[in-house]
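Handout, section B. The chain below has 485 residues.
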Amino acid sequence: CGLDGLIIACNPVWSRRLGFGETTLFITPFWDLAPLEDQEHAASNFALTRGRKTPVNFTSRVVDLEGRVFTVQWTLVAERDRIYVSGRDATLETRTAAELEDAHAALRQAQKMEAIGQLTGGVAHDFNNLLTVIRSSVDLLRRPDLDERRRRRYIDAIGETADRAAQLTAQLLAFARRQPLKMEVFDAVDSVRRLKPMLQTLVGSTVTLDVEALCETCAVEADRGQYETALINMAVNARDAMDGSGRLSIHISTSDQIPGGRAASAVSGSFVVVSLTDTGPGIASGQLERIFEPFYTTKAVGKGTGLGLSQVYGFAKQSGGDVRVGSQPGQGATFSLYLPATTKRLAEKTPAFELTEAVAPQRHRVLMVEDNEEVGAFGRQLLTDLGYTVTLARNAIQAQALLEVDPEAFDVVFTDVVMPGEINGLQLAKRLREMRPDLPVILTSGYSDALANSEGQGFDLLQKPYSMEALSRIIQQGGRATVAE
């Protein structure tokens, strides 16, 4: 081709492939060989070649005389007043690659639908069981001849079932990495040692439990409660794998990387590693790929929810770490939890909070912001029974207006996060901080992207569903503590 793009000469193979005579090609700009939508791409690459010492490679489609379209991989080289063009027919491999990608997309969609079906089926099964207990208890409580002992039993059953439902949703959120975390600096070794008596009780007396720390202090910054829950879930999984007898070894060490695994690349950094190794039968390779999926379990019906290891995975990822599993059939399994190490000072231990019925006088006026009518009514009643004077606002705009009229009207604001309208609870909290920096604002939510992504740092959170005790505790403390039910 000349520098203007006109084809000067073409070998017979390309002339026959295109269906043109050689004289026709001599008056054809190179980019006109492409369909209209590809011509700009071809022309820009041709222009890029002018004055360049290195080849230019690109792919475009070409249309022959009969209108058939095929794909060509081009190499363009400039030499003085000529640009030499070499093209290779890549139609077949391009079509094969496209078909392969379509097949992969179909497989991913099928896997996604299978996971959704497994997830929804598991949630429906577990929640229907919980709702059955609640529904039955409510019906029995309506009986006029019910004695006090049975009445108390049914009330307790409702409360315990609500707690199990809250735990179920927390585990699902943890897998999805949408569980709000209370980050603090603590010693991973100390936590394991304090938890050891409970772990021994969980795994049973016929399982030998060993703890070995290869670092004197292994400081991490994470949610201590979620960390200990992850340890419990891994220990219970090991216990069940060993069928109640064997040896469970816990090793705490440090590492400068997270090794690659489960289609994940290795990650360099400073990490604390907590590994649990059991002497069970091991895990089949086909099960390793799905072991962290929610509701996936190899246990008998009723023996496991399939959420324990998914909580471990979600907690690790949300904390900036990961979890790895290694196993060979007949040789047990090792689960390794990797958490980023920190050089920050360990958090000071605070004395346990004692719940008292007396309400601190400086915290007696509460502005509650809740858009759900039933939740607002029950929350207001709880606070009223605790001795507070409660004003209920149905949305953030209404709450802000009340404080604009009288900024000193309330001693604490207790607001939901996810609400309809122009602003949500987190945005309201930020605005109130500007209006009254001394006004405690407590957030409450069952789920929130903003909180899960740590945008809500600086405000305390009471997770739904919350108990009367937890509500009283955080209000009395004036929003100085995060309470996770």
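Note. Residues 12-89 form a domain with the Beta-Lactamase fold (CATH 3.30.450.20). Compare this with the example in section A.
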